[in-house]
Design a protein that fits this description.
Length: 389
């Protein structure tokens, strides 16, 4: 039986002693940790030379591995404190870590498992050439009506973007008007108009300044997290205010593409089904973790109807290495309750490698599962949410 603990996600963060609960089950949605930038063709958008990385594009960095190991150790301490798990290697039925089949997610999962589960064999992924469809945030609905709604709402979001200040910074520092993309595609200014990319079986996307700006901002952000000197980030042309302004591009890119409940339900349907099966079927595993991408976390949150939130010390809403932790608790009244915590590192922690033994946590809420003063909502309300997905 799970041990009784007070109703704080992590014991060391407990501020007020309240009624005790027993932890029954944990399901985690995790983003990979620090990686090299995704794009390999950013040289086309500027005449300036990009810094080189010591790992291939999109691969987890050495620092990303180290930070994820620290996160795993923190979870180990929490799981031990709740007595949900012991020091023995768990069975697949008890603990299952399932990463997407790419380097950055597999290495994140392995690093986490080394610390959280003593390097036990708890990480499982497909090792053949078959695609891992559950982690693909792709359009699955083939109807014309869905396409029309999709295009309408995407256009509406694009029309309401307020990114002029970010685009002005990129125009100032990138020398785009002399770049290859300007010469070859006549895209010479970040103030140009975006166009929607819609295709069944592909990710919802846009072509134009938002997509390019997101890739550029991502390059700067991963450089920042990985510890590059500020004079080497954006060729030393950004001050702190500029840097924070550019990060709006990464947030809005995800918002435009994935923050629509009906679209996100279609995109994340396989992941939601997996989640529902793990949480509602019997016998239930004690700990499950999916390791994917910001698009996975954003689409699942939009589909389930998370209330708006911000994360202290972070400009990202889904920071690298961050984890949405769904917890099933049994209260003193014998009823089941849900608690959701976002566990993550601040920008300073990621960049400077400080206080990694103490990740930050944020209590989250679903619009249709209202929490009490302790951050719990009735499990039965959560079940209703899952069953309409």
């Amino acid at each position: 039986m799970a041990g009784k603990v007070f109703s704080s996600f992590f014991i060391c963060n407990l501020a007020v002693l309240v009624a005790s609960y027993e932890l029954q089950q944990v399901f985690v949605l995790s983003r990979h940790n620090i990686r090299a930038p995704l794009s390999e063709d950013l040289q086309t958008v500027t005449t300036l030379k990009w810094p080189e990385w010591n790992v291939p594009a999109s691969f987890l960095t050495e620092k990303g591995v180290e930070i994820e190991e620290k996160m795993g150790k923190y979870f180990y301490q929490w799981l031990k404190s709740t007595a949900l798990l012991t020091d023995e290697c768990p069975s697949d039925e008890s603990v299952y870590i399932y990463p997407n089949k790419v380097h950055r997610t597999i290495e994140t999962a392995e690093a986490f498992a080394r610390s959280a589960f003593m390097n036990c064999n708890v990480v499982h992924y497909k090792k053949n050439n078959q695609k891992e469809f559950m982690f693909l945030p792709i359009v699955r609905n083939t109807t014309d009506s869905f396409r029309e709604d999709y295009v309408f709402h995407m256009n509406e979001k694009l029309d309401n973007l307020k990114l002029k200040d970010a685009y002005q910074i990129l125009n100032r520092i990138m020398d785009m008007e002399n770049s290859d993309i300007c010469k070859q595609q006549k895209l010479c200014d970040f103030m140009a108009k975006d166009s929607i990319v819609y295709q069944v079986g592909e990710e919802p996307n846009v072509n134009g300044p938002l997509a390019i700006g997101n890739s550029v901002a991502d390059f700067f952000l991963m450089s920042y997290y990985n510890g590059s000197p500020m004079e080497d980030i954006a060729w030393g042309k950004l001050d702190q205010t500029d840097f924070e302004t550019l990060l709006k591009l990464t947030r809005e890119n995800q918002n435009v593409r994935f923050n629509q409940s009906y679209l996100s339900r279609d995109i994340s349907r396989p992941m939601l089904k997996y989640m529902r099966d793990k949480l509602l079927d019997s016998p239930a595993s004690k700990f499950t973790m999916l390791v994917g991408h910001d698009s996975n976390l954003n689409s699942v949150m939009a589909a389930l109807g998370f209330s708006p939130y911000s994360l202290t010390g972070q400009l990202e809403l889904t920071p690298v290495g961050g984890k949405i932790v769904f917890q099933k608790w049994r209260g003193d009244d014998s009823n089941l309750y849900l608690k959701i915590e976002y566990v993550y590192y601040s920008m300073e922690q990621l960049r400077n490698g400080v206080d990694l033994e103490k990740p930050l946590s944020k209590t989250m809420e679903l619009k249709d599962c209202k929490v009490n003063t302790e951050g719990f909502c009735p499990w039965s309300d959560f079940v209703k949410v899952l069953n309409i997905m």
